[in-house]
Amino acid sequence: MNIIAWLVLGLIAGALAKLIYPGHQGGGIIATIGLGVLGSIVGGFVGQALLGASATGVLSIPGIIFAVVGAMILIFIWGLITRRAA
To answer: Which one of 31, 59, 63, 77 is most buried, counting C-beta atoms within 10 A?
Structure first.
């Protein structure tokens, strides 16, 4: 897989997830890309579990949707962890 495509997908997915998810999430562009890349991995697993097949292509519409959903799941989990620690 092309690393540039993963970074672009990470930036798109992380930014969209932060835009959609309610509340304030900190972090700069590196955190957004990291969140999006990890979200795309989580989203890929969710997509595979729900649909039985992975999204076709990194920068496809289904790929971006699953990456955004995965990033939103990670934002939710991160919020639970940081609230308990505080």
So the answer is: 63
